[in-house]
Amino acid sequence: MIPKEILDRIRRIEITTSRLVTDTFAGQYHSVFKGRGMEFDEVREYQPGDDIRSIDWNVTARTGVAHVKKFVEERELTVMIMVDVSASCRFATVRDLKSKLAAEIAAVIAFSAIRNNDKTGLLIFTDTVEKFIPPRKGRAHVLRIIREVLFYQPRGKGTDISGAMDFICKVYPRRTVCFVLSDFLENTRQKDAEKLLSRSLTVASRRHDMIAISLNDPLEVELPDCGMVLFEDAENGRRVMVDTSAPQVREHYRLKAVRRLEARRKLFSAAGVDHIHISTDKPYTDSLIRFFSARRKRVR
């Protein structure tokens, strides 16, 4: 049985995100994410103004009356929400943890999807695929997704985004809309990690509509002056003592972070993956609105 405090937290997220979907995101989601094409609906008699290219000549010849084929948009989509639950995502210095933001954003995506009669699934990963929930419809299914993202206890601490991408490509050969929520911080050697991620993102984006939602915290860019501080890597446990009072140390830290963010941006661009930058110190709704607005202009 699920504890009452957990149910209350899920309910609060449902109320908050449902309101956002109703007021802001449902229409934008529908206009941005299109179906797989047009499917045949019926044959009817020709009416003035119909495109002559849609005439069904077989039926017309058989009946002696002009008929046209009617098509409708194949609207239903499959949406996969891929959530990184590695140790580095259980971190924040402002407002909510990255993992809490991931749960709310996943809820916005999932409720937008079911409002448009789309199916939604969930993939939870660390340095391995931790849990896979096949796509389904309905409010109860969305609430299960929120619960899993909020309270799933991962076995791993590390991050392997490439492995999660490869899993989705194997399980879903047909085109899906994939949202990847992660801080994109991997604890493998940087060169190898970037090479593997670039390959897997490029392969995945050729098959699926990939949207990367990167979760970031201000402390990952700007190091405050706090004197001598012992830092520990949440994913591999390595520790290092840093003198944060030294201006050159803080500047080196900042420049390294800026280069990392720029390299990430170029990586997504080269792979053909849309990117939404989310920060723990700012409302995520603003970033989502900017993304929907920019993408809607691009797909027109």
How would you describe this protein?
It is a single chain. It is built from 8 helices and 10 strands. The mean pLDDT is 86. The chain has 2 domains: 4-31 and 77-216 and 272-295, von Willebrand factor, type A domain (Rossmann fold); 37-74, no CATH class. The radius of gyration is 23 Å and the shape is elongated. With 300 residues, it is α/β, with parallel strands linked by helices. The protein has a 6-stranded mixed sheet, with helices on both faces.
Brief descriptors of the model:
300 residues; alpha/beta; 2 domains; 6-stranded mixed beta sheet; two-stranded antiparallel sheet; 8 helices; elongated
Query: Which percent range fits the helix content?
Result: 40-55%
Q: Looking at the structure, what is the overall shape?
A: elongated
Strand order of the largest sheet: 5-4-3-6-7-10
SS-based class: alpha/beta
Uncertain residue ranges: none
Largest sheet: 6 strands, mixed
CATH architecture of the largest domain: 3-Layer(aba) Sandwich
Number of domains: 2
Q: Give the amount of beta strand, in percent.
A: 15-25%
CATH T-level topology of the largest domain: Rossmann fold
Cα end-to-end separation: 48 Å
